[in-house]
UniProtKB/TrEMBL annotation:
Keywords: Metal-binding, Oxidoreductase, Zinc. This is NAD(P)-dependent alcohol dehydrogenase. It comes from the Bacteria. GO terms for molecular function: alcohol dehydrogenase (NADP+) activity; zinc ion binding. The keyword Zinc applies. Its cofactor is Zn(2+). Residues 14-341 form the Enoyl reductase (ER) domain. The lineage of its organism: Bacteria, Pseudomonadati, Bacteroidota, Cytophagia, Cytophagales.
Length: 346
């Protein structure tokens, strides 16, 4: 086994704290990554605090991982030592079910393995990226361009692909008006991608203080979603809404801003189920769609798109000791726009 260190939650009630643990030995098709940066996704908060369901503890969160390959298995061919590698929300799957064959390994129906809070194919718990090193099957490691700022690349592995994938699926682009709800980690990537794909982007936010930044990110308009007059003025404006909200909220006002035949794509995962009025949907033939992360081929496509267009996440680089402050700030919506842990500080 390989000695590793990281930050773990020992229970859903205890704060994250330093923890020594072991990674599996490097298998024939594995690579070992020395982790340089790991983004802080709101999912890390939901999971370490059992907001969705009972987790596997101790839990080392983190699924926005970027680092350098430090060792390769006997039959691993994809990377050389010293290459950059990125890992997102999953580290294994069966490769044979229909979802895996479709390149949607995140939905593998046989043996999916999330990056943390899950069991690997060897039956042992897997641990995430708030850590100095990780061993991953090379198929689940992505190539990263040397051209981009590495700390800003880390969040692409979850926030990036989670917003890129639905925008591509629904062909959002030129001539479309796109509303992004919630300007956090996912939301700000939604603004960047929407803009890069040619859509006219508006941000719907509960935080008036984010307006200037939203415009810098590429949003043409900014609406305070708590302001009824502004929401009324936006009635039937958008072809698409991309909802990235992490907390419990009323979705019906957001549905009202869709045009007839508009599409509401949800990627946020608040703990409480929505109450959707049937009138909000029926009046205007509206569609509600979901989207979960993205598969291996599309994640690499997104990373290549980012390298080509010079897109990275806007981040606040933090010392791992400040992770609690980062979580508290994210709970208050005070994030600009992704916290990324500098693993040198571990
Ligand atoms: P984040 O950085 O904390 O941003 C969430 C933003 O949502 C906040 O900054 C805030 O933006 C808005 N918000 C929060 N609570 C709200 C409330 N009660 N009402 C209205 N707006 C609220 O979170 P994130 O990392 O982007 O993640 C967002 C959600 O997506 C989380 O639930 C996460 O688990 C989920 N997620 C899903 C997938 C997937 O595969 N579908 C992947 C990753 C994450 P404003 O200040 O602008 O209002
Ligand atoms: Zn995530």
């Amino acid at each position: 086994m390989i000695a590793a260190k990281g930050y773990a939650a020992q229970t859903a009630e205890s704060p994250l704290a330093p923890w020594q643990f072991e990674r599996r030995d490097i298998g024939a098709h594995d690579v070992q990554i020395e982790i340089l940066y790991c983004g802080v996704c709101h999912t890390d908060i939901h999971l370490t605090r059992n907001e969705w369901f009972e987790g596997i503890f101790p839990m080392v969160p983190g699924h926005e991982i970027v680092g350098r390959i430090s060792a390769v298995g006997a039959h691993a061919r994809k990377f050389g030592i010293g290459d950059l590698g990125g890992v997102g929300v999953m580290v294994d799957s069966c490769r044979e079910c229909q979802d895996c064959k479709n390149g949607q390994e995140q939905f593998c129906s046989v043996s999916p393995v999330q990056t943390y809070n899950n069991l690997g194919h060897d039956g042992l718990p897997v641990y995430g990226g708030y850590s100095n090193t990780i061993v991953v099957n090379e198929d689940f490691v992505h190539h990263i361009s040397e051209k981009l700022d590495l700390a800003g690349v880390a969040p692409l592995l979850c926030a990036g692909i989670t917003t890129y994938s639905p925008l591509k699926r629904w062909n959002v682009g030129k001539g479309h008006k796109l509303a992004v709800v919630g300007l956090g980690g996912l939301g700000h990537m939604g603004v960047k991608f929407g803009n890069a794909l040619g859509a006219e982007v508006t941000v719907l936010s509960t935080s008036p203080g984010k307006e200037e930044a939203a415009r810098k990110l590429g949003a043409l308009h900014f609406i305070i979603s708590k302001d009824e007059a502004q929401m009324k003025a936006a009635f039937k404006t958008f072809d698409f809404v991309l909802d990235t909200v992490s907390g419990n909220s009323d979705v019906n006002p957001y549905l009202s801003v869709l045009k007839t035949n508009g599409i509401y794509v949800n990627v946020g995962m608040p703990a409480k189920p929505w109450e959707v009025s049937s009138f909000s949907l029926a009046m205007g033939n509206k569609v509600i769609a979901g989207s979960g992360a993205g598969g291996l081929p599309e994640t690499q496509e997104m990373l290549d798109f980012c390298a080509e267009h010079g897109i990275v996440s806007d981040i606040e680089l933090i010392d791992i000791k400040d992770i609690h402050t980062a979580y508290d700030r994210m709970q208050r919506g005070d994030v600009r726009y992704r916290f990324v842990i500098d693993m040198k500080t571990l």
